[in-house]
Amino acid sequence: EIQLVESGGGMVRPGGSLRLSCVASGFPFALFGMSWVRQAPGKEPEWVSAINRRGDMEYYADAGRGRFTISRDNDKNTVYLQMNSLKAEDTAVYYCNIWGTEVWGQGTLVTVSS
Prior knowledge:
0% of the residues lie in helices and 48% in strands. The chain is mainly beta. It is globular and about 40 Å long. The N and C termini lie far apart (40 Å).
């Protein structure tokens, strides 16, 4: 069974940082690109970032470019999203996704509020 388990969300003040993690199992993690997608309350899902299977190519949506960093550890079957300089508009549930598929985790809530 394929599983993606996100963690690391929480409440943070504007300007703060969070590091999200997603532990994958049930498929050959090192053979797949991975991505992060977020969904704010009342809005459509929004792609945030992606990383190729080797971890040497990173892609970012404009909203997070320069503030977010995606990385992966294939030995730990884990993909990360380091988020710095957080803004209120970053508030959303963040989902880990096998890039190009409809396989998602359960999500982790990030709330940016003063």
